[in-house]
Amino acid sequence: MYRRCIHGACAALALIATLSARAEPRDAADIAVIRLDDEPAPPLERAPETLALDEIVVTGEKIARSLEQTTASAAVIDGASLEAYNDASVSDLFRRLGNVTASQDGTFSIRGVGNTGPEGFTYGQPVITQFIDGVAVDRIGQFTALNQAWDIERVEVLRGPQSTAQGRNALAGAVITTTRDPTEFWEARARARFAELGTRQLAIAGGGPLGGGLSFRVAGDHRQSDGFVTNTTLDDPEWGATGSRLGRAKLAYRPRALPALEVVATAMIGEADNGNDGSSVEYETTDAAPRTAQDNTPGASDRIARLYSLRARYDIAPDVTLHSTTAYLDTRDVSRRDFDRSAAGESVTDTDFRGRTVSQELRVNFEALGALRGIVGVYAGRFDDDRDIAVREGRIRLSDFAPLPLADSILRLHYDSTSFVADRAENLAVFGEVDWAISERLTATFGLRYDTERREITSEYSTDRVDASLSLPGQVAGLPVLGPALDALLDTLPPLDVGPLLSLTPIVPGTSGRQHAASDYDAWLPKLGLRYALTDRLTAFATYTEAYRAGGVDILFTTGELVPFEPEFTRNYEVGLRGRAWDERLRYALNVYYIDWRDQQVEILTADGAVSYTENAATSTLWGGELSLTARLARGWHIDASLGYAHTRFDHYETINGDYAGNRFVRAPEFTAGLGTAWRGAAGWFASGSVAYTGDYFVTPENDPRETSDAYTLIDARAGYAFRFGSVAVFVRNALDDDHATYRFRLEPGPGVEIPGTLIAHGPPRILGIALELRY
């Protein structure tokens, strides 16, 4: 159906272009001007044509600087570029940026450091912070529809540590998204997008003045897809189906009597329904086709985020501005997963994660205070993270605890367990940063943040049931007549409750009771930099920054043991160049960095593999660089290119599970590159295309060659026609139908897993689509 719609769209595109061309008014120079007096009309003067690139201002560091003055490795993408390249989410644009990668499951990395940490553990505090309209989004919120690229003003990606300005959890970088604010004029837009695999999007946005200095803006975005994974066990061809909804409302107050004041209130809600994670499993005992799943239990994953904020700006003096951001964030992730991902077992994991954040930031920006300009601010936040996990029909293998090869075939042990973790953090910080113009060409930057954090954790675990039942070994079950008869007899025997007995052994953990621990940490985070204008068009710089992630306490729920861990720190050295050339039509940037990571927090499994905990067990070295350029080749035609190299290595990482020294980080491709071009003609036609390359990477710190991604190259394209009130376009994603895996993870026999196999997440296949957008 969708393919027929796309083919018909091509004919519609040509028809609309023809009709619009006939209705389009002629150029102003060709229209006769009739004057009512006798004076001859003066000749029309045209502004001199220029192909110089527009100046880009980076605001993510909270001090407005031009891209040439910004020493951070920054990429700034405005809303027009997001639309030109057909980006569906903020993660889509990552593919075109060097040293930034994104996966289908929503995880991403900057300079080889994943947002969930260098070893890939998903429950820890993130090391890359995402901001939406100045508010930090927690781990759950990063995977909701809040990140959909609709009605976006701009996105800034800052590679490298941002702890001095952004604070906690920005050790490896920050992604800052700004949505469109209310305007003083009426505006409306709508989009309908349809593509293969049942992909569809319906979105609206608009607003205008209400009078009395008030104006509003609303936006809504609904998306669905049937996915590209088929469940062969449940005969479900839409196993990987997804859906998302985004709603956003803003109210701005700009009183005419007090033009120095601006207040913007925002309420937004983002939902994501990923019933099943879209990954497939290939078992060693089967010949499963790619993009198929064998789960015998339907999954569920419902994520929701509600964000409320109040931003205020007041110009105290011509060069002094007070900024305030007050925010409340509430998130929840409820999911169910087939524990062993097979058609054999009955193990199911239910999780309920909840997050709550309350934050307040006050800062003063000052300009032209002598030779100084900068910021001074304070920040306070409370962060609650609750996690409930329940395992039903989990499988226990006696052979994991004793050399009893036939025990698992004769005696089957199943258990139910529940656990609860409440993690609380209170964060206070004072920060400042200044640029000092020492001379006309030399500028020094000084920044400092004092950060203090109190962490409290409460944990409780219980084994609710352990049943034992008899079964036949495969050799006996296969005997004619006798095998089925014995199997039927064993099925009549009720399972035996062996929980009280096994709780006295290391095989089954008992009930831990409620455990509680608290810790306090603080840190001074300096930033130093020098920037020198070698010429009017070439600037060199060098910076030194320190970043950290606070420590805390983990609790081993199997024993109740408290396991504290200390803060981790990075020392970051960076040099680079910023330049312009070709009559201001070319802009380029080069950053080279070296990072020394000490007391690194990594997740460690206990000897029996039952639980994990955090330990300062690693040190690492990272180095690499990014090169990017933007050029305007002709009027309406520009090109963007980016190249990144990231070398990540654990210098020391030795645990009871193995020695990982010399191994690469998780989700850390060494080479990444992106090339994009967009063209818009004077007659209304437009086109764009991009090529993105991501090198292969490991998905576990063991660096097992069986647990890797594929290197892949994705080509996207879009072409269409813009008429007076909108546009129509056709597009293709993954034009070469590159079949690649973004994730491979070994499933070894153990608790809840009976059949060895490999969990594989495939990238999407080629998708053709059509998009219609209307504007007023």
Observed structural traits:
776 residues, 41 strands, five-stranded mixed sheet, 56% strand, mainly beta, 8% helix
Uncertain residue ranges: 1-47
Supply the number of helical segments: 8
Biggest β-sheet strands, sense, barrel: 22 strands, antiparallel, barrel
Estimated helix fraction? under 10%
Measured distance between first and last alpha carbons: 30 Å
Class by SSE composition: mainly beta
**Which of globular, elongated, flat, extended, rod-shaped describes the shape?**
globular
Protein described:
This protein is mainly beta and 776 residues long. The chain has eight helices and 41 strands. It has a 22-stranded antiparallel barrel. Strands 3-9-10-7-8 form a five-stranded mixed sheet. The protein starts with a helix and ends with a strand.
Task: Produce the secondary structure layout.
Elements: H1 2-23, E1 57-58, E2 65-66, E3 73-78, H2 79-84, H3 90-94, E4 100-102, E5 108-110, E6 113-114, E7 128-132, E8 135-137, E9 152-159, H4 163-166, E10 173-179, E11 187-195, E12 199-211, E13 214-225, E14 230-231, E15 242-253, E16 261-274, E17 280-283, E18 292-293, E19 300-317, E20 320-338, E21 348-369, E22 372-396, H5 407-410, E23 411-437, E24 442-470, H6 474-477, H7 482-491, E25 496-497, H8 499-502, E26 515-535, E27 538-549, E28 552-556, E29 561-565, E30 568-581, E31 586-605, E32 612-634, E33 637-655, E34 658-659, E35 671-680, E36 685-694, E37 712-723, E38 726-733, E39 741-747, E40 757-762, E41 767-775
Parallel strand pairs: 7-10, 14-18
Antiparallel strand pairs: 1-2, 3-9, 4-5, 5-6, 7-8, 9-10, 11-12, 11-41, 12-13, 13-15, 15-16, 16-19, 17-40, 19-20, 20-21, 21-22, 22-23, 23-24, 24-25, 24-26, 26-27, 27-30, 28-29, 30-31, 31-32, 32-33, 33-34, 33-35, 35-36, 36-37, 37-38, 38-41, 39-40
